[in-house]
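This section describes the prediction task in plain terms. A model, or a person checking by hand, is given the sequence of a single protein chain and must write out its three-dimensional structure as a string of tokens. No templates, partner chains or ligands are provided. The sample shown here is typical of the held-out split.
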Amino acid sequence: MTLTAIAINCSLKKSGGKPSSTDAMIDLVAGELKSRGVEVGETIRIADHDVKPGVSSDEGDGDAWPDIRKKILAADILIFGTPIWMGQPSSIAKRVCERMDAFLSETDDKGRMPSFGKIALLAVVGNEDGAHCVSAQVYQSLCDTGWTIPASATCYWVGEAMGKTDFNQLKAVPDKVKETAAQTASNAAHLAKLLKAETYPGV
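The expected answer:
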């Protein structure tokens, strides 16, 4: 059985600027998924696209969300990457969650949202406390919109409060972060395989 994954990077930075620590964390998790036989596709930098505000799946002319939506729903696993800003998910991460709200009204004849049977993981980085708060906020949104959250589904790193070192500037990834990434990927691949073989029955 072939499993596929895709990632979204909700950094506030567009591509082409300074390296993104969120990308570095996504790459760590993606590498662990690959080692378990998962085919990992592209990382979509949301800031590079005109994802309009709203709560529908298509907000009209120029809205980039419909194509992004199609790509993430085509994969078995979504790596949801976000930095921590002011102890919270980035505003772009919140926008993505708001756009997924449309899933609630897009159910099939058994009441299943298009995200049913799909796995979501979190990749979080920041130089301040807040990883648990970010996980709580994003996971509530993902759960509400039909995604399945496996055990130990957040891989994160937070630096010293008020510090100046970013995750992608570390000389080496801390062992505990590596272990967490491996556990996260292992649980996600296992659960994705089970749900792909037999998804939720609906009502």
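For orientation: The chain has one domain: 3-197.
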